Amino acid sequence: MAKVAVVMGSLSDLDAVRPCIDILRKFGVEPVARVISAHRTPDTAHEFAANAEKEGIEVLICAAGKAAHLGGVMAAFTPLPVIGLPIKSSTMDGLDSLLSMVQMPAGIPVATVAINGALNAGLLAVQILAIKYPDLMKKFKAYKAEMAEKIAADDAKLQKELDK
């Protein structure tokens, strides 16, 4: 089973991160959830990132607010893909987190989703893994087809409503 680390800077981020964990489970991907702070537990962040590949983790999702350095710190110590999930905080409504994540120096990429974009973080991890796992690719294609069917049904309802 594919494994994705879902690391958050604080337990208070769990509600914002939960859709990520849920969508990974829906696709049959094992989430390895941890609370690790880039600033308060930097040695733990370093150790976790450096050993993630050896532990069978294939993608890291790093959720953090405010300075939001967690994704960058993890990316510095692992060759694995890192997805940044900026968390909305009371400061600047999460814009500070988003900007911190997308302004990484050359050579240390962190793919970043929208503020509180946990669902997309999980889906991006699934897409990355689907390159290696054909079953995940099949499930992801079915997921996209379901979304398209729902939009088509909504459009049909709209047209019917407008024809009244």
Can you walk through the features of this model?
Helix content is 49%, strand content 16%. With 164 residues, it is of the alpha/beta class. It has one domain: Rossmann fold (3-Layer(aba) Sandwich), CATH 3.40.50. It has a five-stranded parallel β-sheet with strand order 2-1-3-4-5, sandwiched between helices. Strand 3, helix 3 (70-76) and strand 4 (82-86) form a beta-alpha-beta unit. The chain starts with a strand and ends with a helix.
Strand and helix map with partners:
Elements: E1 3-8, H1 14-26, E2 30-35, H2 42-51, E3 57-64, H3 70-76, E4 82-86, H4 95-102, E5 111-112, H5 118-130, H6 134-162
Parallel strand pairs: 1-2, 1-3, 3-4, 4-5
Helix pairs in contact: 1-5, 2-3, 5-6
Short descriptors:
Rossmann fold, 164 residues, single chain, 16% strand, 49% helix, alpha/beta
Fraction of residues in H or I helices: 40-55%
Note the beta-strand portion.
Answer: 15-25%
Task: Quickly give the CATH architecture.
Answer: 3-Layer(aba) Sandwich
Determine and state the CATH class. Answer: Alpha Beta
Q: Summary?
A:
By secondary structure, the protein is α/β, with parallel strands linked by helices.
